[in-house]
Amino acid sequence: MFGGYCECFCWSNQDFYDDDFYLPDPQPFSLPAPLPKWPQGQGFAAGRINLGEIEVAKITKFESVWSCGLLRGKSKGVTIYRPVGIPEGFHCLGYYCQSNDQPLRGYVLVGCDSNARKPEVGHIHDSEVDSPLRKPLNYSLIWSLNSETNGGGGYFWLPNPPEGYKAMGIVVTNNPEEPKVEEVRCVRADLTERCETSDRIISSDSKSSNPFEVWNTRPYRRGMFAKGVSVGTFYCNAYLSSDEVLTDIACLKNLDHSQPAMPNLDQVHALIKHYGPTVFFHPDEDCLPSSVQWFFKNGALLYRDCGQKSEPIDLRGSNLPSGGENDGEFWIDLPVDDAARNDVIAGDLESAELYVHAKPAFGGTFTDIAMWIFCPFNGPATLKIGLMTIPMTKIGQHVGDWEHYTLRISNFTGELWQVFFSEHSGGRWVDASDLEFIEGNRPVVYSSKHGHASFPHPGTYLQGSTKLGIGVRNDVARSEYYVDSSIKYQLVAAEYLGDGVVTEPCWLQYMREWGPTIVYDSRSEIDKILDHLPFFVRFSVENLVDLFPTELYGEEGPTGPKEKYNWVGDEIC
Q1: Does pLDDT of 264 surpass 90?
Q2: Residue 128's pLDDT band (boundaries 50, 70, 90)?
Q3: 190, 313, 347, 437 from 300: Cα distances, Å
């Protein structure tokens, strides 16, 4: 039930909607199928996670406190939620906010003193200086909207923590009365990490006399070895930017180095079998994936330095140089024989499999399952210029194409939370509520024709200037060409499980290039394109070149999974 409601976001009464305007509540989202009973293990999917001195639980049930619909349909509205159903002994750390144009699909963490839950230790009172959780001293009103419409205003309060403590999030009321200090807890500073803004949820008009923005937050440092834990709360202020480090609030820190909530080996396999996506390739794809072993077996060659000499690569890749860094001295290329070369370019779908790397995320409160696929060859690009589609003959081609997608799974429940789709040099996270599922809880991944970038839905995606309709086409569709990664996969790395639990293949230690460096004569091909363009859509060669992705003009040989930033770090969006 809404505690308060605002019908516009331009902060002037004459801009309000009519009183009969109604904004429906976002509906909760659930995965298509029930979760299975996971194999026995430590603390995975146990509902609570111990971070050292603080134990946390994830709350996904809320009551709405305040909602705002934006002016005349210009943008989405938002709702602020207060967590409910908090377990006995746990405390709220902040409120949750999301847009109204998506299903209710979020969480906030609540916390308690982990020692207080141990009878032999006894309760540690809030008044104690070293307690991990303490009440705020009071609150500061950081923004408000006093609306008489439907009796609802919005008042955003920042908890003022005791010295040596940090606030975790914002509290919102629908009246000007300051919240009670019992509403939330602040966390001792040494148990926190810096956080930053992530996605902007809502923003007022830039010309508003009462400017306001609301952002999701996330740990500033992220990746396999980072300790920061996302609380799920939000931050608001007059003007912020993406990736801005915050000083008023923080995120939690996991000080339990054993990370007991991470899945064990049996649980990792169970997660892959339950959530492993089906990867569909385009109906006209002629550069299909293969296994790495098939690539080696069918004539891949290792070159060194000046490229005068080459040697075959054995099936395991044991004669590849191991470790170090990409110094440019080695690279892999296709067979010299034309027939063998063409066979390798076509790939071998039957042998194809996904290479899996399981790793901690957000301080071990999530598990990232990165699934890598190998294609022996990346085909030529297809350009789009307005209404014209122009296939290239060579531009975009390169040997050895590594692409991936990543499943992000909550260690509180074992629930699939998001999937990262790698799209050439970047990518994007897609919430589970916006995924396409093929069977049970297994998502669909679409691989683009020739480029093999990953997308969540069929269609055409433009890499370049979408405003002008100029760039590289990424066409994706279902076909009879697919790989079921819930069955055809190989777990190649899970460092957190300890030495020797997962044996990494020899080829994974190869840090050099999986293909030779290629430089394209792009200017010559673009000159030919210009000759066929109508006069009114022609650009100068220089302007047209600027609109295309830089990869079109030359390709360094791609490196393998372990040399990529996201092997240890977070995904790059």
Answers
A1: yes
A2: low
A3: 52, 6, 12, 36
Bridge partners for 43 per DSSP: none
For residue 417, the one-letter residue type is W
The pLDDT tens digits of the residues spanning 306-329 come to: 767 899 999 999 999 999 989 889
The pLDDT > 90 percentage for the chain reads 66
Please state the separation of Cα 233 from the chain's center in Å: 17
For strands 489-493 and 251-253, give the pairing.
Answer: unpaired
Encoded tokens for 397: 């081609």
Q: How far apart are the first and last CA of the chain?
A: 36
**174's tokens:** 């629908």
Q: What is the mean pLDDT of residues 1-20?
A: 39
Distance CA 93, CA 223 (A): 24
Cα 459 from Cα 492, distance rounded (Å)? 32
Please, are residues 208 and 15 in contact by the beta-carbon 8 Å criterion?
Answer: no
Q: Could you tell me the two tokens for 481?
A: 């060409």
**Cβ burial, residue 381 (10 Å; 0-12/13-18/19+):** buried
CA distance 281 to 90: 48
Count of alpha carbons within 13 angstroms of residue 180, beta-carbon side: 3
3-state helix, strand, coil in the chain (%, to 5): 15, 35, 50
* Angstrom distance (rounded) from CA 138 to CA 44: 37
Question: Quick one: pLDDT at residue 67?
Answer: 87
Read out DSSP for 382-450?
Answer: EEEETTEEEE-SSTT-EEEEEEEEEEEEETTT--EEEEEEEETTEEEEEEGGG--EEETTEEEEEEPTT
C-alpha radius of gyration, the chain, whole number: 27
Using CA atoms, how far residue 539 sits from 76, 144, 338, 385, 391, in Å, is: 37, 49, 38, 10, 19
What mean pLDDT is predicted for residues 456-477? Answer: 88
Strands 154-160 and 171-173: antiparallel
**Separation between Cα atoms, residue 226 and residue 219, nearest integer Å:** 9
pLDDT band at 1 (very low <50, low <70, confident <90, very high): very low
CA dist 283 and 448 (Å) reads 10
What's the confidence (pLDDT) of residue 541? 46
At 289, is the pLDDT very low, low, confident or very high (cuts 50, 70, 90)?
Answer: very high
In whole angstroms, how far apart are CA 281 and each of 204, 284, 354? 42, 8, 14
Residue with the bigger pLDDT between 134 and 471: it is: 134
Q: Are 496 and 259 in contact (CB under 8 A)?
A: yes
Q: SS in 3 state form for 229-258? A: ECCCCEEEECCCCCCCECCCECEEECCCCC
**Residue 446, both tokens:** 């679409």
Distance (Å) of CA 129 to CA 56, 89, 125, 162, 294: 21, 19, 9, 9, 63
Task: Express each pLDDT in 334-388 by its tens digit.
Answer: 999 999 999 999 999 999 999 999 999 999 999 999 999 999 999 988 888 778 7
Q: Contact, 376 vs 290, CB < 8 A? A: yes
Q: Considering only CA atoms, which of 192, 181, 261 is closest in space to residue 233?
A: 192
Q: What percent of the chain stands above pLDDT 70?
A: 82
Strands 195-203 and 228-229: unpaired
